[in-house]
Amino acid sequence: MKKLCLSILLFSAFLMTTTPGFAVLPDEVLSDPKLETRAREISKDIRCLVCQNQSIDDSNADLARDLRIIVRERLTAGDSNQEVKDYLVARYGDYVLLTPPLNLETIFLWGGPFLLVVFGMGVIVLWYRSRAPGSAAATQEGSLSPDLSASERQRLAELMAEAPQSEPNKGGDK
């Protein structure tokens, strides 16, 4: 048992010390460390259009590699970080950004989850109101059951009046 616990502890410690592997290949790395740092910062904000929920810095897809090369070429040409992002957005649209800006084209992307939650809460509230004991269906004509016809309600009332009233069991006998 101690060996198992020790093995789990060591494995957990190993997992905590590992760093994420980046997909940047050695031939892509710029010789200028400052430009390479800027390229990595930009790459973390650009979506891989193949993987969709990975940045191009983390993706091994061919298109992600092409985008990383474009980023480095634009930086080498003297573009600022924002100019590189603007170039990619002009070419691929706002979808290329991992966090797209709030504008008319992306309003449903940002507001959609909120609208779905509000809609779901409205459905739940309406469902509970229809099932509540004080709802219109339950209080129809003050009856025991709204599904009974008038003759059935009268017969039920007669049967309940004829039924003997039993006293509560005081002795605990069953």
Strand content: under 5%
Can you give the helix content as a percent range? 40-55%
Mean pLDDT: 80
Q: What is the end-to-end distance?
A: 53 Å
- Give the quaternary arrangement of the chains: single chain
For the largest beta-sheet, the strand count, sense and barrel status come to: none
CATH class of the domain at 19-96: Mainly Alpha
| Unreliable parts | none
| CATH topology (fold) name of the domain at 19-96 | Helicase, Ruva Protein, domain 3
The beta-strand count equals: 0
Structure description:
This protein is mainly α and 174 residues long. Among the domains are: 19-96, Orthogonal Bundle (Helicase, Ruva Protein, domain 3); 102-137. 54% of the residues lie in helices and 0% in strands. The chain is built from six helices and no strands. Helix 2 (33-45) packs across helix 3. The chain is elongated.
Mind sketching the topology for me?
Elements: H1 2-17, H2 33-45, H3 62-76, H4 81-92, H5 107-131, H6 150-162
Helix pairs in contact: 2-3, 3-4
